[in-house]
TrEMBL record:
Name under which the protein is recorded: Uncharacterized protein YndB with AHSA1/START domain
SUPFAM superfamilies xrefs: Bet v1-like
Similarity comment: family membership: Belongs to the AHA1 family.
Limits of the Activator of Hsp90 ATPase homologue 1/2-like C-terminal domain: 14-135
Gene3D superfamilies xrefs: 3.30.530.20
Upper lineage: Bacteria, Bacillati, Actinomycetota, Actinomycetes, Micrococcales
Amino acid sequence: MPVGPVIVRVTLPAARETVWQALVEPQRTAIWWPDLQIDAVIGGGVAEIWAEADSERHATGAVDIVIPGHSLGFNWQELGDAYATSVLLVIRTDGERSILTVTETGLDSLEHANRRAMEYHEGWEYHLEDLRAYLAGELAE
């Protein structure tokens, strides 16, 4: 049975350009997602290394969409997976706030697709809440 995309949306207390900077500037990203490294240029690398239970997990990939201030896309693949997934982040203006939508596709090709889709959804919610907290001034720099 096919697994649809993971879609997570959050309203952020900042203008679109500020959200963009928080996504692509390493010194800002390190505050709200310290395990993520992303070089926001076409062909730039993406990497996340994190500890989980008694193991360490790795996901690596490459940026393939950059529309400054609007969209960032990349593919990445967890170590041991046969296939990569694709992620697209899109920022929309909402008055003085912004709405960030994350869509991750390709999960139906992964082993244990349903479980992984739920885990990825929870992971995106977790990281986007940290981004919201950072932009609201609730995370220390």
